[in-house]
Structures are given as structure tokens and as C-alpha cells.
Amino acid sequence: MGLLEGKKALIFGVANDKSIAWATAEAMHREGAEIALAYAGEAVAKRVAPLAEKLDCKLVLPCDVRSDEELSRLFGEIREAWGGLDILVHSVAFANKEELKGSFLNTTREGFQTALDISTYSLIAMAREAAPLMQGRDGSIVAMTYYGAQKVFPSYNVMGVAKAALEATVRYLAEAMGPEGTRVNGVSAGPLRTLASAGIGGFGQIAGHVADKAPLRRNISQEEVGNAVLYLASPLASGVTGEIHFVDCGYNIIGM
Fold it and tell me: Where is the active site (predicted)?
């Protein structure tokens, strides 16, 4: 029997087969979970549909996470189909491309609001909708973050601020949802070549530096991150909440 046998998992953020969200979906499916996928919109629908088929995924739902109405509709469909929810994975982040290059001083008010709304507030909005579906089910919420929340990386700019807010949100949600038995954690993944990272200026430089300096002298894989999310969502992590779990080949421990 798999670690997640009989569990229902809703995963936001699958864009293609290089997504961390996709590696997570594969890992959870392997361990017995029934998967629902939520994707950003029609632009990625044609890439998500064939991936969903691989997991025999019946619930493949579009959702603009900036809209409370769309989130309410999506979670209503989850309630109707499943009756409840055990696992929620937040692998959603966005900043305008212009904000991810040059000086942080050039951050615009609109760009700041966009990054924080999509990358951070969406976790609060999802958790609020998920809370009644997770009651009494020892639920688990896992959000994806990055070390740029804690240290400065070239061109990460406003996304670093958004991820810092996300990590604080993980802690506050852990306290807010703990009394009902729901755990909330974050996974801080090392640099990966994904659709999201493609928009970050100097990403190749960051990835090369991490590979040279990390204790394991390499970068991570999507599968390693997916397995870490699996652990946090499983009964193996039943006493873990409010944590930021690093999967970065140890880079975060290095001073120089």
C-alpha cells in the first residue's frame, strides 16, 4: 500500500512536464493518491491535458488564482466530486518579466502588487477555501518557495520579496489551521530549469554557482523536489508544520 493510498490531492501549477508541480503529481500518484490538477488558463491547457491522462486524472480544472470567484468555483467542484480534500499543493508564482531584471529599485507598484497577489495571497485564498474540506482529515498544505526569500540573488528582485511573504504566510497559516489538524509547510527548492525560471535574468549564472558551491556539488532534479513534497504531505511528517524544508543539495548552509 502506498503512503497516500486513498488520499485526495489538489495540485496547482502544472504547466508542462518540467514543472515541480508535475513531478509532485507523479510522486503522489505513485504512492496511491487520487489527483486533481488546477492550471492557469487556456494557454497551458493543451500541455496539461495529456499529462493528466497519464495519471488517470478526472479533475483538470482551469483557475485564475487572482479571482476569489474562480477559486470558490473550483473548490466547489472538488467538494462535489470528492466530498473532502486531504492535500493541497501551491506551486504558483508569477512576476512581470520586466521586474526580473536590472535593479530592484525599478520595481513598479503594479509589478509588486501582481507578484504578491499571484505568488503569495493566492495561498491564503486557497487555504481558506480548502479549510472546510480538510476538517477531520489530517490535511496537508505544501507551498513551493526559493532561497531568494532569505538571501539576495541577481535579478530575483520582487519575486524574492513575494517568496519571503509566502514563507511568513506558511507559518501564520500553520498556526491558524493547526487546531483543525491541518499542517502547512513550504519546500525551498534549488534552481531548476522550468517555465517560471526561464524569465529570470541570469538564471544560468545562479544555477552554475549553486552546482559549484553546494555540498553535493550539483543541482537538484524535479523528482527530488516532488519526493520532498510527498514526504511533507504524508503521515511520515505528521508532526511537522510551519517549516521551510530545503531541497537544494545543501547550498543554503554554505557561507562562502
Answer: 146, 156
Q: Is residue 230 part of a domain?
A: yes
Which candidate in 39, 156, 231, 251 is catalytic? 156
Q: Among this protein's residues, is 39 annotated catalytic? A: no
Which three three-digit cell numbers place residue 10? 489538489
Residue ranges for the binding site for substrate? Answer: 95
Count of structural domains within the chain: 1
Is the confidence at residue 194, as pLDDT, over 80? no
The predicted pLDDT at position 196 comes to 59
Does the reported pTM lie above 0.85? yes
Using DSSP bridges, classify how beta strands 140-145 and 87-90 pair: parallel, antiparallel or unpaired. parallel
Cα angle, residue 163 at apex, residues 158 and 166 outer, rounded to 5°? 130
| CATH number of the domain residue 225 falls in | 3.40.50.720
Does 172 qualify as catalytic in the annotation?
A: no
Domain that holds residue 35: 8-247
- Catalytic residue (one of 39, 146, 231, 251): 146
How far apart are alpha carbons 58 and 217 in whole angstroms? Answer: 40
